[in-house]
Amino acid sequence: SAYTWYGIFVPVGTPQPVMDKLHKAITVAIDSKPYKDRMASVEAEIPHMSIAATKKFVDDDAEAWVALIRSLNLKLE
Question: What is the DSSP string of 28-74?
């Protein structure tokens, strides 16, 4: 199955305190009533993930797509 997800990324080497501050601000935003109401209106899920869990999610998703592309022998033209 395929699905859409969104994320906010920072350059490699971004200091941990900056990432922590950004993560906290995003968490506050997705916990807000207006955002929750909007997501509920389109039946979207709002997961809460730590920075480490988000990295694992992105890595696992990329790995799954790479495996599928290789299994189908798809080539970029």
Answer: HHHTSHHHHHHHHHTT-------HHHHHHHHHHHHHHHHHHHHHTT-
